Structure formats: C-alpha cells, structure tokens
Amino acid sequence: MKTLSTMATLLALSLPVMAQECASDIVRTAPNLRYVYSTQGTVKDLRTGLTWMRCTFGKEWNAEQGRCTGQAQPLRWQAALQEVQAINHPGSRHRLHQFAGVKQWRMPNIKELSSLTEQACFAPAANETAFASGLVTEVGNYAAYLWSNTTRIEREEAWTWDAINGEIYAYSIHAHEMGLLLVADEQ
C-alpha cells in the first residue's frame, strides 16, 4: 500500500503544469484588444459591454503582480447566490463589496459566460491576459466549472461553463461545488 501511495505521489509530481495552448491557424475570437484592463482587478469586454472580475471567487487580485493569487473557493449554487447577495448588501463588510468601485456584482447567465470562450485556445479557453491566473485550469478540479444563473428547473440543475475547454454542462445545484466568476453591467 505504501509503495502504491509513493508511486501515485511521484506520478502527480512529474505531471507538467498545464499552460494555455492556442492553435495558430484559428483566428482569435477573444483577442487582447477586445478588453479594457483595469489595475483594480476588472476587465471590460468591449464586445458585450460587461465588466468582469479577473479572478474567480476565493482568489484575490494582486495589482503589484498584475495577476490573481490564492485558491479558488468552489461553492454550491445556492451558496454562490448568497455570496453575491452579501457582496451587494448595503453596508456590507464583505471583502468584495463595491470591488473596484462597482456597486452591483452578479452571477452571469450562461450566454454571458460562454461569450468569454476563446475558440483558438484551451486551458484556459478564455483570454489569458484578461483573466490573468484567475481561472482554474486543473483537470478534475470542479472550480474550473463556473456557475451561471441559468437553470434547468425540471431537473434542479444550473448550467456551467468549463474554463478549460469552453464547454457548457448542466450540474445539480445541490450536489456540486463549482467556481464563481462575477460580472457587472456597469463600468
């Protein structure tokens, strides 16, 4: 048993860290010039007009390094909705309350999330500059799947966007903890 554990550990340590891969023969669908970058940890998508946090919930924007640090905090769907409510509550002491001066953050719908997909790339399947280390890309980590507010009521599921491949999946709102990336309509 000890040998099996040792072998598993060595195998895990020998796996390369996944870096974004992009096809050179596919036109970029989310190029750098599509976004306006803020040093406060947000990015404005000029195509959709939406402002996104650059880091998934749990990670923090490090302005000095120009990237997200820390660990994503996966949540059940209802808990994610409650976090959004706490962030937006007047007088809130939540660390993301009025983050980057934005008054109302929300959970995106599935169309908004899928609009982030960079068709030429994967791991992440989004503009890596816009979401500097903000998206989880480890295969098997449910924090790589981002909750949307779009539901399938008849099955108690919500649609998620897979930040690794840009694919869309429905998952139980009760059984899974997924990642959360917040969006705002204001600048």
Entry summary:
Pfam families: Lcl_C. By secondary structure, the protein is α+β, with helices and mostly antiparallel strands.
Could you please describe the fold and organization of this structure?
This protein has 3 helices and 11 strands. With 187 residues, it is α+β, with helices and mostly antiparallel strands. Strands 2-3-4-11 form a 4-stranded antiparallel beta sheet, with no helix packed on it. A 3-stranded antiparallel beta sheet has the order 8-9-10. A hairpin with a 5-residue loop joins strand 3 (42-45) and strand 4. It is globular and about 45 Å long. The N and C termini lie far apart (56 Å). Residues 1-19 form the signal peptide. Keywords: Signal. This is HutR like protein. Residues 41-178 form the Lcl C-terminal domain.
User: What's the count of strands?
Assistant: 11
Distance between the termini: 56 Å
Main sheet specs = 4 strands, antiparallel
Instruction: Walk across the major sheet and give the strand order.
Output: 2-3-4-11
Query: What's the number of helices?
Result: 3
Helix content percent band? 10-25%
Instruction: Give the ordered list of helices and strands.
Output: HEEEEEEHHEEEEE
Over the alpha carbons, how many angstroms does the gyration radius reach? Answer: 17 Å
Low-confidence regions = 1-17
Described by the principal axes of the CA atoms, the overall outline is: globular
Category by helix and strand content: alpha+beta
How many domain units?
1
- Arithmetic mean pLDDT: 87
Strand content bin: 15-25%
